């Protein structure tokens, strides 16, 4: 029995215990203490941080526009495919903390990573499909061979990309994107001005120019976007994204969905995530909410790795039984 299966079996035998509260009919849970020793055996601590990586993403091959691929030497058609949609301007060293964990938890898997930058957020849907084609082809080959898919997106940057991916998939193949589990980290938000400003500013270069003028230029960008939308009579793109992420004609509402979020996230309000999850629940999604108390945006795993990965593995294991 490999280490991953041992973790999954342990979590199945020691299910979650409710630790927080019921919000809009959705139970917010935390992992049972019994999962701690097993996840710890794989190197996942309760208080992070995960060790830095010398050459992050060096084992990945670039196969398209911001698209990276890693395939385990032990990969087979029955192995999982992990589709990762990173947050805006995420550094390779930060992304690697997740890819390395997935490689440990699913050692025979294939991982497709789609990175995101601010320009991608303003790319029209009509132009997005071509950019996502390499990732879509890999995913289609895997599913056609009978493999399962775990999808995780981070923030609205990753949420926008998985949304465009799902829409492009339906246009091309005529079906909803086949997923076994959908994980949403630090999303979604409707993009209020200052939260959008904080999110975009976080991805700016660290040079003196951007430190002095970056904040102002981001305000100009947001103002320009607002005026264009007003003239064209269009909604805020982030408001549309929130609605489309709960569109059951694009996303399969029989797929378990896990929201990982923080009470103190300065870019995505916890009330926004809980509102979105409540809407999904009303539309018959199987929703699990895992709230962290002190973590920053896209940094929940640093607060408690066992809680973070335990939530993902439990959802994966439970979906295998369906």
Automatic annotation (TrEMBL):
Keyword Nucleus attached: yes
Protein's membrane topology: Single-pass membrane protein
TM regions (residue ranges): 208-228
GO (cellular component) term, any one: nuclear membrane
UniProtKB keywords: Membrane, Nucleus, Transmembrane, Transmembrane helix
Keyword Transmembrane helix in annotation: yes
Main location: membrane
Cellular localization per UniProt: Endomembrane system; Nucleus membrane
Protein name from the UniProt record: Uncharacterized protein
Protein species of origin: Didymella heteroderae
């Amino acid at each position: 029995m490999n280490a991953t299966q041992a973790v999954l079996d342990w979590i199945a035998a020691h299910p979650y215990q409710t630790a927080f509260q019921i919000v809009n009919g959705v139970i917010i849970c935390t992992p049972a203490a019994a999962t701690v020793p097993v996840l710890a055996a794989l190197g996942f601590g309760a208080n992070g941080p995960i060790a830095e990586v010398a050459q992050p993403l060096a084992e990945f091959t670039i196969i398209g526009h911001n698209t990276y691929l890693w395939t385990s030497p032990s990969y087979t058609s029955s192995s999982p495919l992990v589709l990762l949609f990173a947050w805006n301007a995420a550094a390779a060293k930060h992304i690697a903390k997740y890819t390395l964990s997935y490689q440990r938890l699913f050692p025979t898997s294939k991982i497709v990573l789609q990175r995101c930058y601010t320009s991608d957020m303003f790319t029209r849907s009509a132009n997005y499909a071509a950019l996502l084609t390499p990732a879509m082809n890999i995913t289609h080959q895997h599913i056609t061979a009978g493999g399962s898919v775990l999808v995780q997106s981070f923030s609205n940057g990753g949420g926008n990309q998985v949304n465009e991916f799902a829409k492009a998939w339906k246009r091309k193949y005529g079906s909803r994107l086949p997923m076994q589990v959908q994980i949403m980290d630090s999303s979604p938000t409707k993009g209020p001005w200052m939260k959008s400003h904080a999110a975009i500013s976080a991805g700016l270069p660290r040079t003196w120019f951007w430190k002095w003028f970056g904040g102002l230029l981001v305000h100009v960008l947001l103002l320009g976007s607002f005026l264009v939308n007003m003239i064209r009579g269009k909604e805020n793109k982030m408001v549309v994204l929130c609605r489309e992420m709960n569109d059951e004609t694009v996303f399969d509402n029989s797929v378990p969905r896990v929201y990982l979020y923080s009470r103190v996230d300065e870019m995505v309000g916890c009330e926004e995530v809980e509102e979105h999850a409540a809407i999904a629940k009303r539309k018959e999604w199987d929703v699990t909410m895992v709230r962290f108390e002190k973590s920053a945006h896209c940094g929940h795993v640093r607060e408690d790795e066992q809680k973070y990965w335990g939530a993902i593995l439990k959802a994966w294991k439970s979906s295998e039984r369906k």
